[in-house]
Amino acid sequence: MSAKRRRAQRSPSPQYNLDDDSYEPYVPISQRRQEKLAKLSSLGVTAGRHKAKHIQEEQEEREDALKEEERRREKARKERTLLFEAQEVQKRKAAEDAKKTEGEKAEEVDQEILEAIKSRRKLISDLELAKGIQYTDPLRASWRPPRYIRERTLEEHEKLRDKYHILVEGEDVPPPIEHFEDMKIPDPILKHLKSNRIITPTPIQLQGIPAAFSGRDIIGIAFTGSGKTLAFCLPLIMLALEEEKKLPFVRGEGPVGVILCPSRELANQTFENVNTWCSALARDNKYPQLNSLLCMGGIAMNEQSHVLSKGIHIVVATPGRLIDMLEKKRFTFNNCKYLCMDEADRMIDLGFEDDVRNIISFFKRQRQTLLFSATMPRKIQDFAQESLIKPVLVNVGRAGAANLDVLQVVEYVKQEAKMVYLLECLQKTPPPVIIFSENKNEVDDIQEYLLLKGVEAVSIHGSKTQEERQFAIKAFKSGTKDVMVASGVASKGLDFNEIQHVIIFTMPKEIEDYVHQIGRTGRSGKTGIATTFVNMNTPDQTLLDLKYLLMEAGQKVPPFLASVDDPRAVLGGSLKGCPVCGGLGHSISNCPKLEETQRRQLAAHRNVEGGSY
Length: 613
Ligand SMILES: Nc1ncnc2c1ncn2[C@@H]1O[C@H](COP(=O)(O)OP(=O)(O)OP(=O)(O)O)[C@@H](O)[C@H]1O
Hints:
Rossmann fold; eight-stranded mixed beta sheet; six-stranded parallel beta sheet; extended; disordered N terminus; binds adenosine-5'-triphosphate; metal-binding; RNA binding
């Protein structure tokens, strides 16, 4: 083989081998130049776009950063302003506070406490609450004042109220009526009242009775012994009479209304009054017999089975037994439309509030609600106003003021000298006399001492049996016994005839209790004396309450009492009465009643907690 042929076999020429990968076809220079140009120009545009995008992004980032910075600055500026404002407010407040007297500051604290304790549930039934029932108008009544009274002007009504020192609040208050004869009361009752020397209405009656006859809810406040019982019993008797006339009651029907009392003694006394007036009515053949039921602890219900076997018109009750009877369905409140609470401030405050709510939940229809008392602190009045429907407030004198027919004597008697001085004190007037003490043991000690000294004395307090309590009251009322020694039980509402003298052996902490206690004398327009022993053991605050009460009633203030300074006056605060208990000598922040309430609530709370284990 020639050398030329062998070279050709080992290394073939690239131009001729078409299967070789490295083969590149020939492209003319002009075409290649154009293609390069196109490639370059296309590369240039993309880079421009990328670049523009990049620039825009950078720009946006810068703007965002600027905005962020601006926001931070604004926030800081605002914070600085708020801080500044807060500092300014603080400075202003400090300056204002500096200007305020200690008294004004104390008043602010009192206001805060009052606001805090104000939040109470309205006195409406759970059923009404659940169904969202809200009555807006008072019950309709068929009674109307006589035409000539309706035709009087509002000024004439107001003049009459002024004449009797009656203050009223409320919408469309019914007119006052000066004579029982104009109230359309049935003749037999009028005659009976007359025979008991009840001839003209007292101020609470002349405004309270027309308002109640008109179907209005009432908050009635008038001093002790001013005839409130008739003012709330008579409207119920009239209502029962009207219902009975429409359709006579048969077994299982009724009652039309209920009167609630805080103690058995008071319930018993009110029941006797209602019975007397109903009997007076039934003695006249023109009128039907109205049946009333006394419903309170301590009496066997079978004693009353004869009443339960007929229709019942009126129930007078203490809360506990009433709830028991309602739960046992001995009668129902399906058609009950009158609820009255005597000594109402006590009923809807300490101790009974839950019972009252429970009782209200048995009502199935709208009712007329009446609250009566001699003492009614502002806090309770406000609460009551909220719970009633367009109530009429009838106020005779300041709520919680003492009866002006009572001569109040306050004496400083050392603790160890009290018993001996008591004997001397008993000589001031002829019997009957009531002696009050706050403490059950002290009541027993006093009675024992008096019995040893030959004084005919009986006693009542919460630890005595019902029989003992009833015996004591009967013996004292009938005049068999000259002196009754009692704890607070007997102070509220009991109407003993002709009591000449009340001796308060231990001054109660709450001034309301004092007002009720001295109110056992000076009733029904008669005068009486109240002697109160105080000494080192009587707290200054109680002495202050007493001092202001004496001043208000225009009574002599003994020097030792006059010398008790009021810290509020020293601090320059206002001397308004306490809204919780009505005491004039202290503010809410040191109210003994509030302390007592809190103590009870704490105790109740502990009991509940204890019970859950
Ligand atoms: N219009 C009247 N005229 C004369 N005496 C009356 C009149 N109304 C009631 N009384 C008599 O006055 C006395 C006191 O009445 P009542 O017990 O109703 O007073 P009160 O205002 O309820 O007192 P308290 O706040 O102490 O319960 C009773 O003996 C009663 O018979």
